[in-house]
């Protein structure tokens, strides 16, 4: 008797023979389940995020002429882009956010690198340490910084009593102070996103580099750094957009000297009750942040190291 | 893909339509709630956090509940924040009583966000000292104060600086970088502006001289404080020796051992009070009025005085323990500012301050 031979050609031929309608139905069901699972979140976002945001967008196109007379116009936006005060405030916001990104990248990368290289036990401990500031409210943390940096405060007294300097540099109520506060607040986000992408680097790549004669520096520049770019980019995007929209830190650490846009928008709405203008300021801030972030990520994804982002 | 975009757009349209509808409906809905006001079991009071919150939560609310059987929920916030919340909720008010600074009482009145008050429903109103009233029959003054300069006597003696007797004395190179003034958005900051104007031939009608002086003041200051609670540690740690604050805050600092002296300058200092209003269409109007009446009873005012405020009833004085630090003499030139005028001009001068005075900050501090 001829042994039954498994004919793999047959299976290959039979695959496309599966009825197309059944496949379609299965796909449709998949979408339905996914939709049902996402529904609570979608409703939540719609109700508590999309609707208020649209309402603020609507407000921003209303111009108040006197106390009661409201007209639809783009007057609020024109006012923003023609008044040097607000343009300066916008530039200040971007500048401070960029400094914050640079500081937290420089401080964060070595920490992330250490986390990637050390034993799992130490890594767990480091992760806990890095994330622990997030357990404390940002208001409390910034108030702590404020007390430390006050003239006659702890840092001032420490510097003068050690004889390092008689008049320490002015950190409070300056851009430097705001950058200190913001980098302190957002550093964990930078570290954790860089560390995640470092964990994913195949260790054999470094071995291969070493075999081919690359020293540690060369191996870092040519392999580790490019492969960690996705983490760096997401860290930068996170820290930049959070700094752009930060209110507490500029208000506490900058006083009246650093009028960043969120503070300006708050003042317009809460202190002057100019809802419509404050809404326009918020949307300008949102638009500019989105634009910068989009251009930046596009540039990275299409640049020299685009392969890394695939 | 196109279909999903269409669906997304439709959801957005629905959401936009949703924005308008509740607003249109709610005035009708709010009415039945008013009817049930007579048998209220609790009311919501919004007011300044800190000292006012402490006085109401710890002393006044428990006694009010004991007497009327109505529980008081207190929501702390800055006066301006409370006003903007009241404005947002005007179609479905959540608060019954809102306690504002006088300027915001005026703004609430102008925007129709406060109920007119009937003196027969609040009999204690007749006993109130009229100097504290911001807007008659709208806001009932409850927590009295002056906004005045104060300085650290110890540092002044040590350096041989002349005591402060005028608003203009706040501007001296001696204490450059050692000042704590609030930003214009804060009541204390605005008071600084119009009192500098008063002291230099201006008035609320013409703040120009005040603005000019304020630029000089800014050049000797490190910053203007966005958040007035930050000014307290600055004075306590000796980071600043000169300030302008509400008398209750000065009293608190003196209580905590800071050697401060409050000054009523020769040009005068504004006397005013945090004032209680009944929110327009409040859910429990009658209970709200009962609460306000209780707030200005002699019994409550005694407690309020113990917390560092001036009692607002005729013939009553600061609590004995505060007599020395913030007590007012007959001869002190305190005055009641024109809050109506102030509400009109505030926006314009806030803008000018931000654009003209703030950039001068710290210019002469380093030299």
From TrEMBL, chain A:
Q: Keywords for this entry?
A: Cell membrane, Membrane, Transmembrane, Transmembrane helix, Transport
**Transmembrane spans:** 31-58, 90-113, 125-148, 176-199, 220-243, 280-300
Q: Name any one Pfam family assigned in the record.
A: BPD_transp_1
Topology with respect to the bilayer: Multi-pass membrane protein
Stretches assigned to the ABC transmembrane type-1 domain = 90-296
The entry's cellular-component GO terms read:
plasma membrane
**PROSITE patterns (alphabetical):** ABC_TM1
Listed name of the protein: Putative spermidine/putrescine transport system permease protein
Annotated organism of origin: Parageobacillus thermantarcticus
Taxonomic lineage from the root = Bacteria, Bacillati, Bacillota, Bacilli, Bacillales
Automatic annotation (TrEMBL), chain B:
Q: Which GO terms describe its molecular function?
A: polyamine binding; thiamine binding; thiamine pyrophosphate binding
Q: Give the keywords, sorted.
A: Signal
The record's Gene Ontology biological-process terms are: polyamine transport; thiamine transport
Q: Please provide, in alphabetical order, the Gene Ontology terms of the cellular component aspect for this entry.
A: outer membrane-bounded periplasmic space
Alphabetized InterPro entries for the sequence? SBP, Sperm_putr-bd
Signal sequence interval, chain numbering: 1-24
Q: Which PROSITE patterns match?
A: PROKAR_LIPOPROTEIN
One Pfam family assigned to this protein is SBP_bac_8
Q: Which SUPFAM superfamilies match?
A: Periplasmic binding protein-like II
Superkingdom field: Bacteria
Annotated segments matching region Disordered: 25-44
Q: Which PANTHER family match?
A: ABC TRANSPORTER SUBSTRATE-BINDING PROTEIN, THIAMINE-BINDING PERIPLASMIC PROTEIN-RELATED
Protein name stated in the entry: Putative spermidine/putrescine transport system substrate-binding protein
């Amino acid at each position: 008797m001829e042994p039954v031979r498994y004919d793999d050609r047959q299976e290959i031929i039979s695959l496309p023979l599966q009825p197309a309608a059944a496949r379609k139905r299965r796909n449709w069901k998949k979408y339905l389940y996914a939709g049902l699972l996402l529904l609570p979140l979608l409703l939540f976002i719609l109700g508590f995020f999309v609707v208020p945001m649209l309402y603020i967008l609507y407000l921003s196109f209303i111009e108040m002429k006197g106390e009661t007379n409201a007209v639809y116009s783009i007057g609020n936006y024109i006012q923003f882009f023609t008044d040097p005060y607000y343009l300066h405030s916008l530039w200040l916001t971007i500048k401070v956010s960029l400094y914050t990104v640079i500081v937290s990248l420089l401080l964060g990368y070595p920490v992330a690198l250490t986390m990637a290289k050390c034993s799992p036990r130490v890594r767990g401990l480091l992760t806990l340490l890095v994330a622990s500031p997030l357990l404390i409210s940002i208001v409390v943390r910034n108030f702590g910084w404020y007390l430390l940096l006050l003239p006659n405060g702890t840092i001032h007294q420490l510097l003068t009593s050690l004889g390092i300097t008689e008049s320490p540099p002015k950190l409070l109520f300056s851009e430097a102070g705001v950058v200190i506060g913001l980098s302190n607040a957002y550093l964990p986000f930078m570290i954790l996103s860089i560390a995640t992408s470092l964990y994913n680097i195949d260790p054999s790549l470094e071995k291969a580099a070493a075999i081919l004669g690359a020293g540690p520096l060369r191996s870092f520049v040519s392999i580790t750094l490019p492969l960690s770019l996705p983490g760096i980019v997401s860290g930068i995007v996170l820290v930049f957009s959070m700094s752009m929209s930060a209110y507490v830190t500029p208000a506490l650490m900058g006083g009246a000297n650093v009028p960043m846009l969120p503070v300006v928008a708050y003042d317009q709405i809460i202190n002057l009750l100019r809802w419509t203008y404050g809404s326009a300021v918020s949307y300008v801030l949102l638009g500019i942040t989105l634009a910068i972030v989009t251009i930046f990520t596009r540039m990275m994804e299409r640049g020299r190291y685009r392969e890394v982002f695939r | 893909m196109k279909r999903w975009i269409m669906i997304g757009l439709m959801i957005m349209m629905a959401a936009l339509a949703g924005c308008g509808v509740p607003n249109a409906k709610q005035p009708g809905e709010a009415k039945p709630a008013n009817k049930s006001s007579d048998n209220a079991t609790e009311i919501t009071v919004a007011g300044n956090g800190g000292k006012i919150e402490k006085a109401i939560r710890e002393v006044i609310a428990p006694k009010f509940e004991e007497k009327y059987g109505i529980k008081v929920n207190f929501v702390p916030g800055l006066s301006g924040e409370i006003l903007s919340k009241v404005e947002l909720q005007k179609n479905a008010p959540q608060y019954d009583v809102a306690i504002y600074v006088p300027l915001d009482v005026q703004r609430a009145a102008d925007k129709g966000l406060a109920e007119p008050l009937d003196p027969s429903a609040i009999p204690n109103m007749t006993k109130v000292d009229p100097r504290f009233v911001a807007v008659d029959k709208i806001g009932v003054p409850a927590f009295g104060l002056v906004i005045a300069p104060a300085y650290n006597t110890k540092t002044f003696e040590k350096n041989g600086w002349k005591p402060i007797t005028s608003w203009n004395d706040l501007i001296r190179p001696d204490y450059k970088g050692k000042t704590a003034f609030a930003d214009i958005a804060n009541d204390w900051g605005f008071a600084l502006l119009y009192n500098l104007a008063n002291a230099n031939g201006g008035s609320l009608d013409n703040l120009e001289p005040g603005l000019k002086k304020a630029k000089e003041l800014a050049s000797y200051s490190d910053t203007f404080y966005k958040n007035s609670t930050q000014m307290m540690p600055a004075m306590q740690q000796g980071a600043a020796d000169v300030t302008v604050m509400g008398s209750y805050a000065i009293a608190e600092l003196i209580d905590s051992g800071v050697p401060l002296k409050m000054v009523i300058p020769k040009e005068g200092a504004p006397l005013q009070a945090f004032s209680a209003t009944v929110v327009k269409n409040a859910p429990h109007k009658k209970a709200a009025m009962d609460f306000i009446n209780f707030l200005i009873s002699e019994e409550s005012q005694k407690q309020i005085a113990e917390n560092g405020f001036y009692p607002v009833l005729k013939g009553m004085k600061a609590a004995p323990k505060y007599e020395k630090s913030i007590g007012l003499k007959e001869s002190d030139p305190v005055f009641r500012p024109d809050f109506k005028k102030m509400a009109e001009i505030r926006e314009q001068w806030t803008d000018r301050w931000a654009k003209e005075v703030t950039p001068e900050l710290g210019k002469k501090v380093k030299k």
